[in-house]
Amino acid sequence: MQPAVSVKDLKIAYGDHTVIDKMSIDVAQREFLVLLGPSGCGKSTLLNSIAGLQDITDGEIWISDKNVTWAEPKDRGIGMVFQSYALYPRMSVRKNLSFGLRVAGLPKAEIEARIARTASLLHLDKLLDRRPSELSGGQRQRVAIGRALVREVNVFLFDEPLSNLDAKLRNELRVEIKKLHQSLGNTMIYVTHDQVEALTLADRIAIMKDGVIQQLASPSEIYHRPTNLFVAGFIGAPAMNFIEGEIVLKGGTPVFESNGLAIDLAGYPFLSAAKAGPVTLGIRPEHIAPNGADAGWPTIPGTVSVVEPMGADTVLWFDWAGQSLSYRIMGDAILQPGTAIAPGLDIAKASLFGADGARL
Ligand SMILES: Nc1ncnc2c1ncn2[C@@H]1O[C@H](COP(=O)(O)OP(=O)(O)O)[C@@H](O)[C@H]1O
Ligand SMILES: [Mg+2]
Asked: How far is the CA of 247 from the centre of ligand 2 (A)?
């Protein structure tokens, strides 16, 4: 099937400062694609170029079977939601929702039908006669989303729509956006710097750094098989533990060595092909366990430095070879800072990265 949106060899530069270079990406029909990356990596620039709000230096933008590279935003068949709600303060919610449709000259009955549908989807029915100043932040953002939805187009673009909300509202609205996508079944491209939003909402995440897509894959693939050190370190909280060391071949089998650790990789099919040389071993906090030795895992000796209770689980930080590492257990910890420990490493779940940072 034709992709809903295609970005082809996109280049965007300000003078000789190139923000995006030769980027290509296809977004499938009905897909929820999240653009994730640190501030300044080019997420908004990319989204705005799809919306037609940003001049491009080179390349093409296609929406379904149309080359819209030079089309006006209003002719692209997209709806967009921004971080700042940008509502008209003097207009009621109803007027805010209908404004674009009235300008476009839609018949009155059609406008009313669309507002009714949208208001019901977003639970705005009882708020239609209020002005933005009479709404909470979450309600305002619902209206901003509604203003995109009334256009009843195929592709919706969101630029950090939840960033201005407090944590509780952010969580609530995040779930609603997911429900909305499930019930509407259209294509959504959603920009965020928040990994939780990316992991929970996306069918696929495009994780970006300096205008370059580092990995484009499902949340699970990105979390469990990050393609390089940047992705591995960006996704996951607390972050993946990184242990720098070296692969040494002993009688043909690779052994990971670092500061007295020696971990035989022969029993781990996807690590056992590792070649001799410097590497970084990456292991997530939930793949280090206090009783790991019982499962036959290699252990790492350390001293507990900080215990962070998080409610459902607890993160323990410990010092090993001058480095701070963390692991996560379910429930409460009984250990105190200063306790000597030797948790086990679930090497089957670990990642190895070469000297250039790429996954081995
Ligand atoms: N008008 C502009 N002139 C020059 N550089 C710009 C302009 N707008 C954005 N940039 C640069 O483009 C890069 C990407 O910005 P942006 O797309 O807003 O990042 P993000 O949305 O990921 O935070 C940044 O380095 C920013 O400084
Ligand atoms: Mg931005």
From this structure: 40
CB of 42 within 6 A of ligand 1: the answer is yes
Buried b / exposed e along 121-155 (16+ C-beta atoms within 10 A): bbebeebbeebbeebeebbbbbbbbbbbbbbebbb
Q: What ligand has the least distance to the C-alpha of 35?
A: 1
For residues 325 and 259, membership in a common domain is answered with yes
Ligand that lies nearest to the alpha carbon of residue 48, given by its number in the listed order: 1
What's the 40 CA to ligand 1 centre distance in angstroms?
6
Residue 192: the pLDDT is 96
Structure confidence at residue 3 (pLDDT) = 97
How do beta strands 212-217 and 58-63 pair? unpaired
Smallest CA-to-CA distance from 152 within 179, 201, 109, 117 is with 117
Q: What is the pLDDT of residue 22?
A: 94
| pTM of the complete model beyond 0.90 | yes
* Under-50 pLDDT residues of the chain: none
Q: State which residues form the domain around 335.
A: 241-353
Q: Hey, whose CA ends up nearest to atom 21 of ligand 1?
A: 44
CA of 164 to the centre of ligand 2 (A): 13
Does residue 95 sit in helix, strand or coil?
A: helix
Domain shared by 144 and 245, yes or no: no
Residue 119 lies in a domain: yes
* Residue from 10, 18, 19, 157 whose mutation best tests the ligand 1 pocket (most atoms within 8 A of CB): 19
Give Cβ neighbours of residue 34 (< 8 Å, ≥ 6 apart).
189, 190, 191, 192, 197, 198, 201, 202, 204, 205, 206
**Cβ 45 under 6 angstroms from ligand 1:** yes
Residue that terminates a domain, selected from 171, 201, 230: 230
Q: Give yes or no for a contact between 92 and 86, defined as CB atoms under 8 angstroms apart.
A: no
Residue 269: the pLDDT is 77
Question: What is d(CA 232, CA 207) in angstroms, rounded to the nearest whole number?
Answer: 11
What is the tally of structural domains in the chain?
A: 2
- For residue 211, give the ligand 1 atom closest to its CA: 14
Of 180, 199, 230, which one is at a domain's C-terminal end?
230
Determine whether the shortest distance from the Cβ of 40 to ligand 1 is under 6 A.
yes
Amino acid 167: pLDDT: 87
